[in-house]
Design brief:
The complex is a heterodimer of chains A (137) and B (142).
Chain A: H1 3-11, E1 15-18, E2 21-28, H2 32-49, E3 53-61, H3 66-81, E4 85-89, H4 93-102, E5 110-111, H5 115-125, H6 133-136
Chain B: H1 3-7, E1 8-10, E2 14-19, H2 22-39, H3 43-64, E3 67-76, E4 79-88, H4 96-99, H5 113-120, E5 123-129, E6 133-141
Antiparallel strand pairs in B: 1-2, 2-3, 3-4, 4-6, 5-6
Helix pairs in contact in B: 2-3, 3-5
The chains are: A alpha/beta (137), B alpha+beta (142).
Chain lengths: 137, 142
């Protein structure tokens, strides 16, 4: 197996959270190489699993400058072309303020504060819902 | 001596980082976060100052093939703050007013970096000479 490819996916783990829903957390600082790796991995996984949604969690990013914001927008556009929509979660108050200062328009991208909110958004679009067991009694 | 120690020269609350490759940006950002936290900035300001530093450092890489970033503690009229100074010997900025406009870029990037730094920090000055280089100074007060 291609060692570089293995190392790439070790650094950037992606996992299936539910049928049709992938999850990828991003931690640290994104540079252009890492953004490219993340885009490669997301596209490969979206293609391989035929997932409809990817939750990209950016709670752990160290800074959101214009280059990072640009990478994020590109990544979400690319997955959409494959028929897999990116939901951006982990929009902390810090990230939100930086995005506003940058004046970035995230367009109609779905963004949520928490991963649970992103999962809920994906569920509702897939016609699924989470029900408390008590409610079924 | 660790990688980090080699990259930063610390002299009286001053951190100096040479920025020649993307990995240096991350090192400088860590130093900046540490310095801002030690000064007592809130986490959201720490994040913003770090973002401004990353923006300035990456700008130097894109436009000037690198430079130096200095992080200073500063004080004025009994107020404390953090000062970021980015110095490069690149081509300089021909039209600063244009560079400060949102969505102006000479390189096909978003063109929002410098105006964003100004919005994130309390003050920002640019000294630039075409053909000699650029110095950007940005402060955030406690």
């Amino acid at each position: 197996m291609d060692i570089e490819k293995v190392e790439k996916s070790e650094k950037n783990p992606i996992t299936t959270l539910w049928d049709d829903i992938l999850f990828m957390p991003v931690i640290g600082l994104l540079d252009s190489k890492r953004a490219q790796d993340i885009m490669d991995i997301m596209l490969e996984e979206a293609d391989a699993t035929n997932a409809r949604y990817i939750i990209l969690d950016i709670k752990g990013v160290a800074a959101v400058d214009s280059a990072v914001a640009n990478h994020l927008v590109k990544i979400t556009k690319a997955t959409k072309l494959l028929g897999c929509e990116t939901i951006l979660s982990g929009i902390t108050p810090n990230v939100a303020q930086s995005l506003v200062h940058l004046g970035i328009d995230l367009g109609n991208l779905i963004t949520t504060a928490r991963v649970s909110g992103a999962l809920e958004a994906a569920f509702s679009r897939l016609g699924k819902t989470v029900v408390s067991v008590d409610a079924l009694k | 001596m660790s990688q980090q120690d080699r990259c930063e020269a610390n002299a009286g609350g001053r951190l100096v980082y040479a920025i020649v490759q993307e990995a240096d940006v991350e090192n400088a950002m860590r130093g900046c976060r540490r310095c801002a936290r030690q000064l007592g900035f809130s986490e959201s300001i720490v994040f913003m100052v770090a973002t401004a530093l990353v923006e300035l450092a990456r700008n130097m890489l894109y436009h000037a093939a690198g430079g130096t970033v200095t992080i200073n503690e500063c004080s004025r009229a009994s107020r404390w703050g953090i000062e970021l100074v980015a110095i490069d010997h690149g081509p300089g900025i021909a039209n600063v007013a244009l560079a400060m406009q949102d969505h102006f870029s000479t390189r096909g990037t978003l063109g929002i970096g410098l105006p964003a730094v100004k919005r994130m920090m309390d003050s920002m000055d640019i000294e630039t000479v075409v053909g000699q280089g650029t110095t950007v100074r940005a402060c955030k007060w406690l």
